[in-house]
Each structure stands twice: as structure tokens, then as C-alpha cells.
Amino acid sequence: MKYVVKFFSEIAIKSTPVRRRFVDKLASNARAVLVELDPQVVVRRHWDKLEIESEADESLQRQIVDALQHMSGITYILEVQSHPLPDLAGIIEKVMPVYAERLAGKSFAVRCKRSGQHSFSSLDVEREVGAALLRQTEAAGVNLSQPEVTVDLEISKKSLYVVAERYRGIGGYPVGSLDPVVSLISGGFDSPVASYLTMKRGMRTHFLFFNLGGRDHEVGVKEVALYLWQKYGCNQRVLFISVPFEEVVAELLGQIEDSHMGVILKRMMLRVAERIADQLEVDALVTGECVAQVSSQTLRNLSVIDQVTSKLVLRPLIATDKEDIVRMASQIGTQEFAANMPEYCGVISVNPTTRAKLGRVEAQEQRFDMSILDRAIANATQTRIDRLAEQDLERSEVEVLTVPLSGATIIDIRHPDEEQLAPLRVHEEVLKIPFFELHSKAATLAADQTYMLYCGKGVMSRLHASHLIDSTNLTVKVYAPRTL
Fold first, then answer.
1. Record keywords: Transmembrane helix included (predicted)?
2. Is residue 25 assigned to a domain?
3. N or C: which end of the chain has fewer CB within 10 A?
4. Catalytic residue numbers, as ranges
5. pLDDT per residue as tens digits for the range 388-424
């Protein structure tokens, strides 16, 4: 199968050196992702497009298209049949087998995009092909304004591309083409969407989590960070940083006035985030804050919070309605995580201020033992996101098997979208429990049964197997079949 990948429109208007850099990065990202699906995949870089060829089976072709649809920097993916450019009669001959059956009983229009010098115009192609299709198929007629089927053709110099399918990409710039950022992620609706938007805009995004108490919450946030990276991160090397913040919360509760705890907690987070960003040589921080969504997010409070850091603080959702954020979370696949995320609200003010004054905040902070922040940073863990499971495996011994055990029940914990793309086919019983529901449903699983967790790459299954072993009496292993 052959695909033509169309770049995001803003890439095309860049200067020649910048455009070349962006296109090179997109080609590199495509190779890095697609080679895991098809080691023989071919990615060719051109000035105005990428060409991708794969001889993989139909199931893998669907996964290739899905991967490209979630790769930033791409506006369209065209599934094409390519031919050396023939004359007009030859073009008709190439189009007929692709579109004849689709046109039965339907209106259509022919659209041709052409670049290069030819003896005919795009309009000539549209007229001749349209007339032939009208004569030789059972099409209902031509409708140029609202066709039921669009016959899609592209002519580039000496090549003809008959577009069999057109898929929409997410746009944006290739991940890694712009400077990196550190995103403060909590696992709710907002911060994962904010992280997605920075990734989509081309920024390599590290994930920074402040643990206010509880391993369940940390595991949940790891899940969503790992999902975002696997779905949209294009295998870029990024870190998941977890900072223990329980002692910070305890100090706030003991030393800070109730009305100012929310604002000062955010200032403490930015202090730590700035120092970690300095270690990573990163210039910008990202949060999921939105004006007036909660008391600490009034313009006055955000201004007071930001004055604690010299870093640029990006807030992609700053003027976005909550309903729109939830809708975007649903579109990118993180809504289920937020709905199932354990909540740890270590600091809840009874009467929080909405108009904090910097002088009063700084006076309150004089009571705070800042050495606690030093300890939090010293005890922070930094893990490459593709190695998150290995960190948890140090706590629990997880057996990984390449073949199912007789009598065991396999639990397919993949996201439903991923499971539909590549259904698991084995002889053993298979339960479908998405990983974001696994721990809430663990109590319903029989204690005398052996369970084998399965996910596509084996990372998520190891992470959850480790957690289930530690938190339940279940017998849990990992099923990780070898890929050919």
C-alpha cells in the first residue's frame, strides 16, 4: 500500500531552511513510529509531501493509518495508487477500477490537483474523467457543489496518484521540531489536554507530577502520560518526573492561612518546576489552568503565582470553556482517564482568596520551611517514559510469558480504540477491561484464577501487573507474545 502524506499548511509557508528542518523531523518521526509496525516500511521525503510504502497485511495497514492520523505535522493522509503519468485516456483507465463501484446510484464530482508542466489543465482532466465515469458507470449524476462521492486525483510532474481514501490528520508541527517544555500533569481533564496541545504544536513535552499522596494516583497519572506519549509522542525521548509533595502539603496546612493555601501551593509547585526545568535546560513550563475555573485561577492569582518563576508559563487552555476541554479530552482519548482518576486534594481552602496580594503572600511564605522543597527535589524520580514499568517492577516480581498459560484468563487492557484496530486472537478466554477501569474492577475478579494482562507494547501491562500484585491477592502475570 502506498500513502501520500500532506504537511500541515503552516509548514509550507516557512523559509526554506525552516521548512526543510520541519519536513526532516516529520520524516524521522514517521520512520520511528511506523518501523515498529512494519520493519520494511519505506518513507520517502519530498519537498511538498512524504511518500510511505508498506507491504504489510490489512490489519497492520489500518494501524499505520491510525498512527499517521495521530502524528502532528500532518493534515491529510492519502491512500493512493500511483502510476507513471499517462495521457487523458490512460488516466480514465486508471481511475475506473477504483471508483466505478463506489459511484453506483450516487452523485459525484472529479477534483484534480496538478503541479508541473503538462499539455492539459486540471479542468481538462476533471471534464474528461467526469464524462467517462458518467457514461461508463451507474452514477446518479454530477454534483459539483455537494457530491456524495469525490473522485480525487493528483498529478505531480510525471506521476499520477489516484486517491482511494483520504484520512484527516491532526495538523500542528512535528513533535520535537520546537523547543521542549515541562508540563505539570495531574491526570484530570485539563492538564492532559494542555500537554497534548503542546505536543501537537511540535514541543517535546516532559511530564512533571507532584504526588500529594497515594500510589494509586501516581499510577493513574503515569497511565495518562504514557498514553499521550504512545499516541502522540512519536517515540520522542521524554521524562516522567514524580516529586513527593506530601511534606510540602503538611507544612502548608500547619503554617499558611487557609485562604492563601491554594495560591501558595501553586507557587511552591512552580518553584520546584523551575529548578527541574533548569536541570533539563528547558525554558518553558506548561499548566492546564484556565481563567476563573477555580479560585486560584483568577487573573490576579495567576499573576501572583507566576511572579515566583522566571520561566515562561504556557497555559494552552487559558480561555477555554470546561465543556470544550472535556470534549477535547474525549476526542484525544483521555476522558476515561480523568473520569477514573483517584482524587487527592491535599489542600482545600474553606474560603479561598480570589484576589491575592503579593506582599501578603510573600509574608505568609516566610513561615514556610523552604528546605522541604530541597528535600522534595532531592527525592524526585526521573524516568524515561518508555521505562516507567521497569521502575515499578523493582517493587514486585512480575512474570512475563510469551505464550498463554493453560487455563489462564487473558485480560486485554488496551484502550478500546486500539483493541478495535488489532483484535487479540487466542484460544484462551479473553476479558476486555481497559486499563483505566482495571483497578476499579479488580474486586470482581475471582481470586482462584490466574490472569495474564495484555497490551500492545507490554509497558502498560507490566505497570498494572505490578500494581495489582502489590494491592490485591490476585495471581497476575503478563502476556507478551513475540512479534515476527
1. no
2. yes
3. C
4. 455
5. 766 554 445 678 888 888 888 999 988 787 778 788 8
